[in-house]
Amino acid sequence: MTDILMPALSPTMEEGVLAKWHIKVGDTVSAGDVIAEIETDKATMEVEAVDEGEVLEILVAEGTEGVKVNSIIARLAGDDAAPAPKKAEAAPAAPATPAPAKEAPKAAPAPVAASGERIFASPLARRLAAMA
């Protein structure tokens, strides 16, 4: 099971409005799928799924105001073990060339801010970072 957390859309964001869900219980989502719209006092942003799986439950209703950053807003059922072997298989291929092996660890921390908040990246940006 994977928890979907309320994202921080800016470094100073503490809470926001869950404006709209693009998914419902029972839907299957893949990484990169738009699952919700979050509003702050300055912007409305689309939130993408970072994991794949079936939507088990939606814990915060559409239109809910004052949703705290990093609170659980939904849950996915997914096979958490499946993505790990894929990453492990990709890792041995990278050490064949020493330069990309040194750059790959630098790209991995980029999605997490120093405060521990997740930074969202488009699927294209994630693919490019994985290739680096």
Give the number of domains: 1
Give me the CATH architecture, please: Beta Barrel
Radius of gyration: 16 Å
Low-confidence stretches: 81-94, 99-110
Strand percentage: 25-35%
CATH class: Mainly Beta
Terminal CA distance reads 30 Å
Alpha-beta classification? alpha+beta
User: Superfamily at the CATH H level?
Assistant: RNA polymerase II/Efflux pump adaptor protein, barrel-sandwich hybrid domain
Given the structure, what is the number of helices? Answer: 3
Read across the widest sheet, the strand sequence of neighbours is 1-8-6-3
User: What's the mean pLDDT score?
Assistant: 75
Helical amount among residues, as a percent range?
Answer: 10-25%
Structural key phrases:
alpha+beta; 4-stranded antiparallel beta sheet; 132 residues; 31% strand; single chain; 3 helices; OB fold (Dihydrolipoamide Acetyltransferase, E2P)
